[in-house]
Structure formats: structure tokens, C-alpha cells
Amino acid sequence: xxxxxxSLALASALLAPLxxxxxxxxxxxxxxxxxxxxxxxxxxxxxNAGEVIKRYSTDSIAARAKYPPxxxxxxxxxxxxxxxxxxxxxxxxxxMVFVHGGAWRALSKDDSAAPVSSFVEHGCLYVALxxxxxxxxxxxxxxxxxxxxxxxxxxxxxxxxxxxxRIFVSxxxxxxxxxxxxxxxxxxxxxAPADLIKGGVVMSGxxxxxxxLLSSRSGYVKVSAAEVEALSPMRHLxxxxxxxIVVHGDQESPEFKRQANVFAEALSGMGRLRAQxxxxxxxxxxxxxxxxxxxxxxxxxxLAMMKG
Length: 308
Prior knowledge:
The protein is α/β, with parallel strands linked by helices and about 300 residues long. About 35% of the residues lie in helices and about 15% in strands. The protein has helices spanning about 5-20, 35-40, 50-65, 115-120, 140-155, 175-185, 210, 225-230, 255-270, 295-305, and strands at about 70-75, 80-85, 95-100, 125-130, 160-170, 195-205, 245-250, 275-280.
């Protein structure tokens, strides 16, 4: 089976339960509406969510004070900016682009600087990506802004100390979804090489939007059926042209675990899975903090991928 057919087969397998006759009180798999709503709201599974999110900000403030970034604009709107963190005298270094989470409607690049030391102190550039959130824009616009940013980085990163042939992307939660969407982008249609991205790290992301939009998240994420198709990375696996690391915490909701495992299984069958990490004792919000520690096995694997 070629990669295209395998990709479609896995996507069909993921959607197959939707075609089965379900019990009257279920809306997806064996979930009732209430259960599915809870499965896509990680605060039900993490009592310390507010505390951890506050750490994103305070840890980022400290990192910015130690490693002042260079802020660049990649698009026309006020939100289309990015922060570049680089070692002194950087030249031709691999680049990690981080896409922040926040349920597609919160947080920004200003909350994404905590991992800087893990990268700049080990010979890499770190880019904290900013983009507009819902309701200022729609989800398809967010994806378009992220793609525009990647094209800008490829065209400009050499003069800022990075290697345009070694661009990597990572993201957490809704940023994990957007990072996977970038990995599954048809870059040739945008005038870039198919392998623009040389490796990815998808942390606690949502790879198939159909069940997400059966949940209460549909109250603020408004997309058409065609947009669900376009923005579900599981339906475009054949476009992924690089190794991918898939990560989730063992204290996350069952749906986030399921989505991570299905994505990892598909990538493994395609020969694209570099590694899968299940972070023990970590809930959804704690997962990206592994990047803050350069000695963490996940971060070490990522750095090895970037320098390999």
C-alpha cells in the first residue's frame, strides 16, 4: 500500500465509528454529549490548570529578560509577528518554531519563551510565533497566518542567524493542531519545497477535527465541512515529509490520548514517526514544560533531531 492509500485508509479508520449505528444517547464512539464535552475541555482533567498557565507567562518573562528577542513582522496585521531568540554570533543554526496553544482563542508568543534556554544554549534558534486568535479571526485564518510565517522564516532566517534548510516546528494543544497542519501542508502549491519543514514535535494536539466540533468547542469554532477536511491533518498524512515526534501526558483526557495514539500509529505505518513520548504524571497543561529542561529525554531527542 503506498503512502497516499495508507493515509486515506487511516483517516477512514478514524472516521469509521461515525458511520456505525450508535446508541441513542451517544454522539461519538461511546461518548454522550456531556462526556464528549468534558473530553475536549482539559480543565476537567487538570486541577492546577490556572497555575500552570500562569507559569507560561512568568517563565517567559524571565526568559525574555535573559535572552532579549528580535521581533519581526511576517504579515500586514498587528498580530502577525514573531520573536527570534538566537545565541550571540548565530550563523546557519537549526531553527525551532513554536506554535502556542490556548484553545485557538488565548495566549500569544509572549507566553511561549520559557523553552528558550534549552535551544539557544545548545546551538539552535528558537522562534515564538504569534498570530491572531478567535474571535478576531477564524480558524482557517489562523492556519493561513502560520503558513505565511513559515514562508517568511524560510525567506529571511538566514540573515538572522538561522539555516533555511533546517527549519523545525513544534506546538502544544491547539498549537499542536496548527503545527500538525503545517506539517501536512502542500508547500509546493505555495511556492516552497515540499520538505520546507525538516521535523516536527506535536504535543497534545488534535489531528481530526470532526469529533472536536461535535463537542462544546463548536460554540466558538465555526468552520464548514470543507474547512474541517482541509484543517484535519489526519486526512492529509501523505503530505508529511519529515520525521515527527508525538507527545502527550498520561493525565490528559481520553480524547487527547486517543488522538495522539492514532496519529502516532499512522505516522509509524508511514515511516514518519521518530518517537512517541507519554509523559508520566503530567496533565495537558504541564506537557510543554518538558521543553524548559534541556536534559529532559524529549528535549534531548528534539535537539538530536535538529542537529542530526
